[in-house]
Design a protein that fits this description.
The protein has 93 residues and is α+β, with helices and mostly antiparallel strands. Helix content is 37%, strand content 33%.
Length: 93
């Protein structure tokens, strides 16, 4: 498995974000339960979010992101990801 840091930028349509958020959180909650998402949360200004995925490869990462309700409903307007190796902290174990 490999860790990927993912940064999303959201649409400015706050009504859409509010509408889809419960589905998005339910989806992420299941991925957390499965160990696929290790950390996730929005930026304080509401412009996007940061997630850490633990997946086999970039193909699985793309699949998981594409299946997220935020992707399916157009909340995410930009997604960038990088393979990531933590050096300090709880994700190093």
């Amino acid at each position: 498995m490999a860790l990927f840091a993912v940064v999303w930028r959201y649409t400015e349509d706050t009504a859409l974000i509010d509408e889809v958020r419960p589905l998005h959180r339910e989806y992420l909650g299941e991925l957390v339960h499965q160990g696929v998402v290790r950390q996730a949360g929005p930026f304080a200004d509401g412009s996007g979010g940061l997630l850490v995925y633990d997946v086999a490869d970039e193909q699985e990462l793309r699949k998981r992101i594409d299946e997220d309700p935020y992707s399916l409903r157009g909340v995410i307007v930009e997604s960038r990801s990088w393979p990531w190796t933590p050096v300090f902290g709880p994700l190093t174990t």
